[in-house]
Amino acid sequence: TIADTKAFVEAVDAKVSDSADWGIATPYLALQAAKEGTKNLLVAAENCHFKDSGAYTGEVSVEMLKEIGVEWVILGHSERRQYFGETDETVNAKMLQVLKNDMTPIVCVGETLEEYEAGTTKDVVKTQTVAAFKDVCPKCASRSVIAYEPIWAIGTGK
């Protein structure tokens, strides 16, 4: 909630050190509250749309995110892939849109339990990474973040 975001930012903001970049990714409705409440945290959106504009009901464009000062966007999160059918191609389209708008993408990659048990982790992660960075210039790639998210480890205790 917005109230939870405000409370979290208030509790954490002054405690972060300069030794690393610290951030929070919030639902869309809480992004502005996070931006307004922090001096030290990076604020990231949990997703964005891959088009500048158009009739995409319920989607949020990078232009909308930039308007409220958001500079970071998570792409390819396992829940987006699982529940919304996002593909490597969709992640790439979003990646190109984020980079085109001088924002920083946080690209999530990771394998399922079946892929992990089959020993294909490296192949899966490489495939996802190569697909996400298709047509991305080296300079743009250098300002991107890759987040390894082993899907099988989320909430399993493994």
UniProtKB/TrEMBL annotation:
The lineage of its organism: Bacteria, Bacillati, Bacillota, Erysipelotrichia, Erysipelotrichales. It catalyses: D-glyceraldehyde 3-phosphate = dihydroxyacetone phosphate. Pfam families: TIM (PF00121). GO terms for biological process: gluconeogenesis; glyceraldehyde-3-phosphate biosynthetic process; glycerol catabolic process; glycolytic process. Its EC number is 5.3.1.1. It comes from Thomasclavelia spiroformis. This is Triosephosphate isomerase. Coiled coil: none annotated. It comes from the Bacteria. The gene is tpi.
